Structure prediction request, 188 residues.
Amino acid sequence: MKNPKTRIDVLYCYENPPVPRVPVLPGFLPGTVGSIVSPGGSGKSMIALQMAHCIAGETNLLGIGTPAGGQVVYLSAEDGRDILHERLHAIGQTIPPATRELVAERLIIEDLTGYQPDLLDAHWCQAIERLMEDKRLIILDPLRSFHLGDENDSKAMNILITTLRTMAARTGCAAMFLHHSNKGLAVQ
Prediction:
């Protein structure tokens, strides 16, 4: 397989330094996929919203440093408008008015609780990938609500994650998904 789009020029890499990439968050690079995995009700959505505020507002809200700013998309397919309002109000009380304005310009939050988004469907993939264009981060909350596949089917889940990775690589937008782990497996 000799494809100029996929072939790595080894000699070029030896002779030329790589272009520096600015992490979206510490250890989380643009165009990659990351996750927050824990039992339901443990605060994944709140921490993800706070991460979104860190990036959109270029603020050290979480004490992890001030990340390079940019636009963030948060797709909520589990928590509706009222819950999102409560969380946003609580976060808003912790940041200065100027930061609130910047976040309001850069943070897009969509309540998808009335829909069944499906990353295994081409139309949904295209719509979500369009949202990712020119964005720093997209958050899918939770991953289970973004597909109709069987989570015990490793082939279907591989296709799902590969699709998300491909979309992130094509757009340069980091993608983060939230995922519920089994409460019975949680470390006490």
The chain is about 40% helix and 15% strand. Residues 37 and 93 are 27 Å apart (CA to CA). The chain has a mean pLDDT of 93. The helical segments are 10-15, 44-57, 81-92, 97-106, 122-132, 154-171.
